[in-house]
Amino acid sequence: MLPHWLEKASLNTVQTLGLYIHVPFCRRACHYCDFYFTPRASLMEAYTEALLHEIDLYGPLLEAFPIQTVFFGGGTPSWLPFHLWERVFRKLSRFSTYAPTEVTIEANPEDISLQSLHFWQAHGVTRISIGIQSFSPRVLRTLGRFHTPEAAYTAVELLSAASLSSWNADLIFGVPGQSMEEFLSDISFLAAHHIPHLSLYGLTIEERTVLYKKVQRGRFVPVDDELYDAFYHAAHGFLQEAGFIWYEISNWARPGHECKHNWRYWRREAYIGLGPSAHSFIPEVRWANKRSLRAYLASLETGEYPLDFWEALSAEEQQRELWITQFRTRLGISLSELRSEDRPALYESLEKMVASGWIEKEGDRYRLTAAGALIANRLALELDSQVRV
Ligand code: SF4
Q1: I want to staple 260 with a disulfide (CB 3.0 to 4.6 A). Which of 102, 244, 246, 336 is the partner?
Q2: 348 alpha carbon to ligand 1 midpoint, in Å?
């Protein structure tokens, strides 16, 4: 039986599914991170048991559509021991619909070894996304990362020699004390190791983090906007020159290596999220799991969905969200889809953004420029208010 909130969903529009599995364990808190995780490895066994139960609850749905992409995110999924991974993969492969074309695991450098890469590949993993953030010992210390530069270099060597279909590294820029030379040398080291995909994120100070507390006490001063923008432009120029395709504000890929799973989110295609705090979407319904591992375990122990909330979007809300999400990607925003002739103010806003150099027009489409990407949230808000009119 399907969960009751899916009665409002348009299941007849679903062709394939994406599966996101949240693995909520990290060895310790990085100083900038506000994701949900726990350091209590002693709960990994119970978590896996509950996850298998949750997979069973969603069985009728998972059995009904081909599972096209899988993404294990965290947390630090790579910290999960092999015997628990085996249980998860055994369970998933029992579904006749389980033949994904992309299976990604998020990993930290300290977990990458010849043995772990062989193990994951043998279980169908096609893509590793590694949280490097920086190769500079000083920057890693500021960020409170667990790994050393040496572990990161070794992991990159192993990944570049492995026969994976693809792999990605996350880097952070705009960290106080980080020099432009350091940042560009991190990127060029990865490019020299034939990395197929890069995600670059500017440091932001989120509430409930160590850095936020330091800022409040005056012990940490974020870099100014000018320097932040300079990092982004420098990386953008370097990667375009090196033949990468810029396909979303924070993501660059060599041809054929764009992340299929992320495209599902940006195209608003159906995905099921499992594990604490995971979000799901089936047009036009979205829902989320309870954020705490304790609450997640308690729900599944009693055979209940670990639901935090659900909501049904109107067709109009869904369309608006799709436009705003695609605006952040290389798909951009299409004038004819927006019916700009009915919205002269919207057309005017878009043209003003072109004149300011924040977006560019190609045929019927408007796309962000690198300068626009840096203020994309502000631009998206402005467009959203026009689309609502
Ligand atoms: S390893 Fe990743 S999820 Fe865990 S605390 Fe660090 S940044 Fe956050």
Answers
A1: 102
A2: 42
Q: What atom of ligand 1 comes closest to residue 75's alpha carbon?
A: 3
Atom of ligand 1 nearest to the CA of 145: 6
Q: What spacing in Å lies between the alpha carbon of 170 and ligand 1's midpoint? A: 12
Q: Please report, for residues 133, 194, 254, the alpha-carbon distance to residue 190 in angstroms, rounded to integers and kept in the order given.
A: 12, 7, 13
Q: Are 183 and 231 in contact (CB under 8 A)?
A: yes
pTM: 0.96
Pick the atom of ligand 1 nearest to 108's CA.
1
Q: Residues for the chain: how many in total?
A: 389
Cβ(293)–Cβ(38) below 8 Å: yes
Provide the β-strand partners of residue 248.
Answer: 251, 329
Angle formed by the axes of helices 149-161 and 114-122, to 10°? 50
Q: What is the pLDDT along the chain (389 residues), one digit of tens a residue?
A: 789 999 999 999 999 999 999 999 999 999 999 988 999 999 999 999 999 999 999 999 999 999 999 999 999 999 999 999 999 999 999 999 999 999 999 999 999 999 999 999 999 999 999 999 999 999 999 999 999 999 999 999 999 999 999 999 999 999 999 999 999 999 999 999 999 999 999 999 999 999 999 999 999 999 999 999 999 999 999 999 999 999 999 999 999 999 999 999 999 999 999 999 999 999 999 999 999 999 999 999 999 999 999 999 998 888 888 988 999 999 999 888 877 677 888 888 999 999 999 999 998 899 999 999 999 999 999 988 887 75
Residue for token pair 């490097």: 132
Cβ atoms 102, 126 nearer than 8 A: yes
- Mutation pick for ligand 1 pocket among 37, 110, 211, 291 (CB with most ligand atoms within 8 Å): 37
Going along the chain from its start, the domains and CATH numbers come out as: 4-265 (3.80.30.20), 315-389 (1.10.10)
Å from CA of 68 to ligand 1 middle: 26
Nearest atom within ligand 1 for CA of residue 33: 8
Determine the Cα–Cα distance for residues 105 and 167; give it in Å rounded to an integer: 10
